[in-house]
Amino acid sequence: MDTGFSEAVERALAAAPASANGVLVIRLPALRRNYRRAAEASLKAETAAVVKADAYGLGIQPVLTALQKETARTFFVATLDEALALRTFANDATIYTLNGLMPGTSAVYRDARLRPVLNSLAEVEEWSAYCREHEARLPAAIQFDTGMCRVGLEPEAADALAARSELLQPFRPAVLMSHLVRADEPMHPLNEVQFKRFEAVTSLFPGIAKSLVNSAGCLLRRKYHLDLARPGIAIYGGNPQKVEPTQFEPVVWLFGRIVQVRHGEKGFTVGYGATETLKRDSRIATVGVGYADGYFRGVSSSDAKPGAVGHIGEHALPLIGRVSMDLTTFDATDVPEALVHRGGFVELLGEKTTVDDLARHAGTIGYEVLTSLGRRYHRVYVDE
Ligand SMILES: *Cc1c(COP(=O)(O)O)cnc(C)c1O
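Above: the input record for the complex with pyridoxal-5'-phosphate. Below: its predicted structure, written as tokens.
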């Protein structure tokens, strides 16, 4: 039967159990190409990979295995728990925790050969004292705040640290880092302001590798790249800049199972709140994916505002009415009848409706779409 989808997708969907209402297809070769693009953009720097939040929701283990087939050797997670989980299957990886050193956790870092990003003078003091006490020059990164006001040593703390060089002796400061706040707007003057602040503070600690850029930063001018780049979203196929088109390709495809195909009479309303009235006799495909799966309620459609769009092959199916917890309704009136059947699939995310398209409908960003991807989905990792 012609289903309207490509062969690779068809094979992935066929591999999903018939019971699955949502199927997430993650294309690892696309992920690897995206990493390579980020690495090529920041040519002189080593290119790490940010894999926090379960590799932005895509699944840390398969993502890591794929990235290690490229040149990725250094990885950033958010928390110590994430780092410990990562260590169980990445024995040789260099792993940093972006959220910093929690009180009393130094021994855990040492035992698992993990590296904290030291985000305050207090963290530097604790790590330094631990290393001194155990006579172990353990590596760590030090983060300076140059404009985020979130984590990282404030300028005064940086000056205080420079004045207490004995604090740096007992451990090995392996990386000095900071984080850009508006790198998605390449021409924004704040990029240069942060660069200058970072330059000033790092000059106090010569001879240590420097790291400033995230995905969007990899696309800035050469001088920003320094020694270590830290791309995340670009690897996962999100557009890191506000500029279109993106240089990175989609990695995630989401398919929702059609649980019912029904007739809707002109003048009837669809869904909770009766927010959308059918303007013609319609064929409606009800799909077993809803906001509980991270298919945000914000992408709903109403008489006042169109919603997200699903696809079967080349055919567009506009969302109709509100997204509910477990179900979403699509207008399949214009799709050939043979392609719309109970048990079939509607593409909710992929090349035609990208992560960023869906985010725009929901009033959010691609990062939140990816990290919200549901736990109910059957996941298929495609290696070809
Ligand atoms: C999340 C994060 C990154 C990666 O950012 P992307 O925009 O996803 O590339 C890099 N550095 C820090 C400090 C981060 O928190």
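Notes for the reader.
The CA atoms of residues 5 and 313 lie 5 Å apart.
The radius of gyration is 24 Å.
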